[in-house]
Automatic annotation (TrEMBL):
Protein name per its UniProtKB record: M1 family metallopeptidase
A Pfam family annotated for this UniProt entry: Peptidase_M1
Signal peptide range: 1-20
Keywords of this entry: Signal
Species in which this protein is naturally found: Chitinophaga pinensis
GO molecular function: metallopeptidase activity; zinc ion binding
Highest taxon in the source lineage: Bacteria
Domain Peptidase M1 membrane alanine aminopeptidase: 382-530
Length: 625
């Protein structure tokens, strides 16, 4: 009797702990709570702040040499409560310098001799020496301190040569260039880490303030420029017929060919000046990017992204005419923007344009994607474009710190890629692709780096350990959360998080707490299980006891992840019954559960099917009579 009582007390105590778990919170986040810049309920704190820049940039692209020169004026606004005695400047294209740190091997064609050279650096009109012997991050001591709630003016001029082997930016071909990260920028200074000093090493991605941009890109005649933001002077740089087509496309529901291959090659597209300057504008956005070519064809249309207001987004594509898949790019984009706006995440696409540019990177940028051509593989081309467009929401609508927590954006893009794939290709095809492309290599690799907690900082991970922690595992977690909460509560909670943090800089704990608050549930058990553990996916059907009207299943969770799964019962007459189990069955922390399935026939076999939650040891997921 005493032993039974002790056991009961221990069980009740453990259950109480499981229902009132706490998350590990780093000291700097605790400090943010104390400073009231962030709140434990997941909302921005009453003293939340973020700094901002107003950038006026002039870029000149010398073709075909690929030499880029630029100058910019930046009004940098210190909204923080701190006095800043230095600025941290980012030169991302210094990644191509021979001695810059990188996460992997690059060919000699990737390298440039000098990287980015700062020619002039003025602070409030005072010349400040700039040490060009840096990688992607440099510190500049200010001639006088920048006080809290004050601002300063920077004037910077620079030049660099585009890399011969393009990755996220550089030369696409001899007369096609992609200008990403083409300007010096002030690094992020935030409320939990101060200056962002993490070097860009070509694996983890970026962290940027929300800035305002006016950009002028000067290129030779017959070169068209596509870019982030709204083109301000189409009539000045395009011939009248082309300018009219572009304007008409802003309200068109069908694909329009703005400029054909023949028109590009015959000088019938741009104004025939020696140089044309293309002007773009964008407000409160994380970055700006531009592509230019003298032979890419140009398609466009538009799509209503907000049915309540009728707001439209211009959808464009720029590509080599031989790229068969890109002829469908505008239609792919129109479908994606409509679907994402109406379904998942169910937030109206927030920007006025979206341009798909044929390059090499399969990479996202604000209002642009840079995707490789895959020829006739239209299904795969659409999936890649879907994924990159999904990044509009994470990290560009939500100001994610990708350098530290890539799962906060790549995991969501992977999730939306899967959900839109169901709409496009059907669930069976979407499941199969997700299994093969996102899960199989991870679950079949038993190495320790695969089971590092998702919360691990991205810039401290490497190889496949980084990739699976950024993409597949967090996506599985978000889909498990969707299954746990149900679509209605999941949607309400996701929207609450996005409404609170768009245009700001959420951290993982802001996300966790925001979902807890919006759902009305303490989900810390779930966050601990998926994000703070070394778990993996491995269920075991340990025992099956069949009776006249019931099948009693004993299921072990050897891997630990709180996954949803189906119990598939096959009867002797060949019919079957499927009973779904949500992640809630693992809420009490037990790795051993009993599932009872009502039956009215003789049972021949039982199988646990995780579908996209592929099992490490699938052989022990089945029982046969």
């Amino acid at each position: 009797m005493t032993r039974m009582l002790i056991a009961l007390v221990l069980m009740l105590g453990y259950a109480g702990m499981a229902s009132a778990q706490e998350l590990y919170v780093p000291r700097n986040i605790k400090k943010a709570y104390a400073n009231k810049t962030r709140s434990r309920n997941g909302q921005p704190g009453e003293r939340y702040w973020q700094n901002k820049g107003r950038y006026d940039i002039q870029l000149k692209v010398n073709a075909p040499s690929g030499v880029v020169s630029g100058q910019e004026n930046i009004r940098y606004i210190n909204n923080s409560p701190d006095t800043l005695r230095s600025l941290v400047i980012r030169l991302i294209c210094n990644l191509h310098k021979v001695n810059a740190p990188r996460s992997g091997y690059v060919s000699k064609d990737f390298l440039t001799e000098e990287g980015v050279t700062i020619d002039t650096f003025l602070v409030n009109g005072v010349n400040v020496p700039f040490d060009n012997d840096i990688a992607t991050v440099g510190n500049v001591k200010l001639p006088s301190a920048l006080n809290a709630k004050d601002s300063l003016n920077l004037h910077i001029s620079w030049h660099y040569t585009l890399s011969q082997q393009s990755g996220r930016e550089g030369k696409i071909d001899s007369t096609t260039f992609f200008l990403a990260y083409a300007y010096p920028r002030v690094s992020v200074y935030d409320d939990y880490n101060g200056w962002d000093l993490i070097e860009h090493m070509d694996r983890v991605e970026f962290y940027s303030d929300f800035n305002d941009y006016n950009v002028a890109v000067t290129v030779p005649k017959n070169y068209v420029v596509w870019g982030t933001g709204v083109l301000q002077n189409g009539a000045d740089v395009l011939q009248p017929e082309i300018a009219k087509r572009l304007k008409d496309s802003y309200t068109a529901d069908q694909l329009m060919h703005i400029a054909s291959k023949e028109e590009m090659s015959n000088g019938k597209v741009t104004q025939q000046k020696d140089w044309n300057t293309w002007k773009f504008s964008a407000s409160h956005i994380a970055d700006v990017t531009f592509g230019t070519s003298n032979h890419y064809v140009w398609d466009a249309a538009s799509v209503v992204v907000d049915s309540s207001t009728g707001r439209r987004t211009s959808v464009q594509a720029a590509y080599d005419d031989a790229a068969e898949d890109f002829h469908h790019s505008v239609d792919f984009s129109r479908y994606a923007l409509d679907w994402f706006s109406r379904n998942w995440p169910g937030v109206a696409y927030p920007f006025p344009t979206m341009t798909a540019f044929q390059g090499f990177a399969d990479m996202e940028y604000p209002m642009m994607v840079n995707d490789a051509t895959v020829g006739k593989q239209l299904g795969f081309a659409q999936l890649v474009q879907d994924h990159e467009i999904a990044h509009t929401y994470f990290p560009f609508y939500m100001g994610i710190n990708e350098s530290r927590y890539a799962f906060m954006d790549e995991g969501w893009a992977t999730t939306f890629e899967y959900l839109i794939g169901i709409a496009e290709k059907g669930k069976a095809a979407a499941d199969k692709f997700y299994q093969l492309f996102r899960v199989r290599s991870y679950i079949n690799d038993a190495a320790a780096e695969e089971d590092q907690p998702i919360i691990s900082q991205s810039h401290q991970l490497s190889g496949v350990g980084y990739g699976n922690n950024a993409y597949g595992k967090p996506s599985l977690a978000y889909l498990a959360l969707k299954d746990l909460l149900g679509d209605q509560v999941f949607r309400k909670s996701l929207h609450a998080y996005m409404n609170s943090w768009n245009g700001k800089h959420p951290m993982p704990w802001d996300f966790f707490n925001s979902i807890n608050t919006a759902s009305g549930q303490d989900l810390n058990w779930f966050w601990n299980n998926w994000f703070f553990s070394n778990n993996y996916i491995d269920l075991q059907l340990a025992d099956v006891k069949t009776k006249k009207d019931n099948a009693e299943l004993t299921i072990l969770n050897n891997g630990g992840f709180a996954i949803p799964f189906d119990v598939v019962v096959t009867f002797e007459d060949g019919s079957s019954k499927t009973v779904h189990q949500t992640p809630a069955v693992w809420k009490n922390g037990s790795k051993r559960i009993t599932v009872n399935v009502p039956v009215n026939k003789n049972v021949a076999a039982v199988k646990l099917d995780g579908i996209i939650y592929m099992d490490y040891t699938p052989a022990d997921n089945e029982w046969k009579k």
